[in-house]
Protein backbone atom coordinates (compact mmCIF):
# COMPACT_ATOMS: atom_id res chain seq x y z
CA UNK A 1 0.00 0.00 0.00
CA UNK A 2 1.29 3.47 -0.91
CA UNK A 3 2.18 5.90 1.84
CA UNK A 4 0.37 9.22 1.76
CA UNK A 5 2.60 12.31 1.75
CA UNK A 6 2.60 14.43 4.89
CA UNK A 7 1.47 18.06 4.77
CA UNK A 8 5.11 19.12 5.09
CA UNK A 9 6.15 16.91 2.16
CA UNK A 10 3.36 18.44 0.07
CA UNK A 11 4.43 21.95 1.10
CA UNK A 12 8.03 21.24 0.15
CA UNK A 13 6.85 19.91 -3.22
CA UNK A 14 5.03 23.22 -3.75
CA UNK A 15 8.22 25.11 -2.89
CA UNK A 16 10.14 22.95 -5.36
CA UNK A 17 7.75 24.04 -8.10
CA UNK A 18 8.46 27.68 -7.24
CA UNK A 19 12.23 27.34 -7.02
CA UNK A 20 13.29 24.39 -9.16
CA UNK A 21 10.67 24.28 -11.88
CA UNK A 22 10.07 28.01 -12.39
CA UNK A 23 13.32 29.40 -10.94
CA UNK A 24 11.54 32.00 -8.81
CA UNK A 25 13.17 34.01 -6.04
CA UNK A 26 11.77 35.45 -2.77
CA UNK A 27 9.04 38.00 -3.36
CA UNK A 28 8.03 36.60 -6.75
CA UNK A 29 4.52 35.26 -7.31
CA UNK A 30 3.08 32.32 -9.19
CA UNK A 31 -0.53 31.98 -10.37
CA UNK A 32 -2.54 29.02 -9.07
CA UNK A 33 -3.14 27.79 -12.62
CA UNK A 34 0.58 27.08 -13.00
CA UNK A 35 0.42 24.68 -10.05
CA UNK A 36 -2.70 22.96 -11.32
CA UNK A 37 -0.89 22.03 -14.51
CA UNK A 38 2.25 20.66 -12.87
CA UNK A 39 0.92 19.26 -9.59
CA UNK A 40 -0.81 16.10 -10.93
CA UNK A 41 2.19 15.39 -13.18
CA UNK A 42 4.22 14.96 -9.99
CA UNK A 43 1.81 12.33 -8.68
CA UNK A 44 -0.05 14.46 -6.16
CA UNK A 45 -3.79 14.87 -5.66
CA UNK A 46 -5.81 18.08 -5.28
CA UNK A 47 -6.16 17.26 -1.56
CA UNK A 48 -2.36 17.07 -1.28
CA UNK A 49 -2.15 20.56 -2.80
CA UNK A 50 -4.65 21.94 -0.32
CA UNK A 51 -2.91 20.54 2.77
CA UNK A 52 0.52 21.46 1.42
CA UNK A 53 -0.56 25.01 0.68
CA UNK A 54 -2.02 25.37 4.17
CA UNK A 55 1.19 24.04 5.75
CA UNK A 56 3.34 26.37 3.61
CA UNK A 57 1.21 29.40 4.50
CA UNK A 58 1.19 28.56 8.22
CA UNK A 59 4.97 28.08 8.11
CA UNK A 60 5.43 31.50 6.50
CA UNK A 61 6.81 30.00 3.27
CA UNK A 62 4.09 31.41 0.99
CA UNK A 63 1.62 34.26 1.07
CA UNK A 64 -1.76 34.06 -0.60
CA UNK A 65 -2.24 37.22 -2.63
CA UNK A 66 -5.51 39.19 -2.75
CA UNK A 67 -8.03 37.48 -4.96
CA UNK A 68 -6.74 34.04 -3.96
CA UNK A 69 -5.40 33.13 -7.38
CA UNK A 70 -1.65 33.65 -6.84
CA UNK A 71 0.96 32.87 -4.21
CA UNK A 72 4.11 34.80 -3.28
CA UNK A 73 7.28 33.00 -2.22
CA UNK A 74 8.80 34.37 0.99
CA UNK A 75 12.46 34.45 2.02
CA UNK A 76 11.77 31.64 4.48
CA UNK A 77 10.08 29.58 1.79
CA UNK A 78 13.03 30.07 -0.52
CA UNK A 79 15.60 29.08 2.09
CA UNK A 80 13.57 26.20 3.61
CA UNK A 81 12.55 24.75 0.26
Question: Could you walk me through the main structural features you see in this protein, from its secondary elements to its overall organization?
Answer:
This protein has 4 helices and 3 strands, in the order H-E-H-H-E-E-H. It is an alpha+beta fold. Strands 1-3-2 form a 3-stranded antiparallel beta sheet. A hairpin with a 5-residue loop joins strand 2 and strand 3 (70-73). It starts with 6 loop residues before the first helix and ends with a helix. The mean pLDDT is 93.
Chain-averaged pLDDT: 93
Classification by helices and strands:
alpha+beta
**Termini separation:** 28 Å
Query: Which stretches are low in confidence, meaning pLDDT under 50 for 5 or more residues running?
Result: none
Rg from alpha-carbon coordinates: 12 Å
Question: Numbering strands along the chain, what is their spatial order in the largest sheet?
Answer: 1-3-2
Largest beta sheet, briefly? 3 strands, antiparallel
Strand content: 5-15%
| Strand count | 3
Shape: globular
Helix content: 40-55%
Elements, N to C (H/E)? HEHHEEH
Q: Counting H and I runs of at least 4 residues, what is the number of helices?
A: 4
Write the layout of secondary structure elements.
Blueprint: H1 7-21, E1 29-31, H2 32-38, H3 46-58, E2 62-64, E3 70-73, H4 75-80
Antiparallel strand pairs: 1-3, 2-3
Helix pairs in contact: 1-3
